[in-house]
Amino acid sequence: MTSTVPASLFRTNGSSALQAVFLDMDGTLVDTEGFWWDAEVEVFADLGHRLDEAWRDIVVGGPMTRSAGYLIESTGADITVAELTVLLNEKFERRIERGVPLMPGAERLLAELSRHSIPTALVSASHRRIIDKVLHSLGRDRFALTVAGDEVVRTKPHPEPYLTAAQGVGADPVLCAVIEDTATGVAAAEAAGCRVVAVPSVAPIAASPGRVVVRSLEEVDVPFLRTLITGI
């Protein structure tokens, strides 16, 4: 976990306003979910196995260990989760070395959050080595804090990553908004008590109390996020 701003700067005693915004990375801010699937397909092809396209919705957005374990079990590949994780990260890194495409509205939203001085954290199931490479495209200075999947004991769908982010910026999770693209990430954010904006990337996500579903980050701005918290 990396932080660039003292958490004490973000404490707002007695306030019911938006205190922080936490964003997922792959599929939410950067268009890389397809990169991960391509890496998985290529690695298993090298191992002599073909992945079923239907498995894509199952592994999307999940922690590396869960996705790797599922694909090993489904294919019967003779490889350990630890070995597969190394291969997948290497394949993915090669795909992002020349930069990654941002999702529509991502650049504008990050700039707006910065202008309004709203504490913003990147919370991803990806490993630190991957996040650090993607930050070259996103802009490291856009985030007060970044939380990687290999820096927490339990990653998404467990709430620990979002609780860690809230603690890191000194915010109440109930007064934080989370933007996620997968059911796994949404489950983690909601379990942490945060308000959620779902921007589905691969699999659909249904709206529910405390959760808003939008088609694109282009529909999200600071007034919209503040309304999630105040209800006004």
From TrEMBL:
Domain of life: Bacteria
Pfam family name, one: Hydrolase
NCBIfam families: HAD-SF-IA-v3 (TIGR01509)
Protein name (database record): HAD family phosphatase
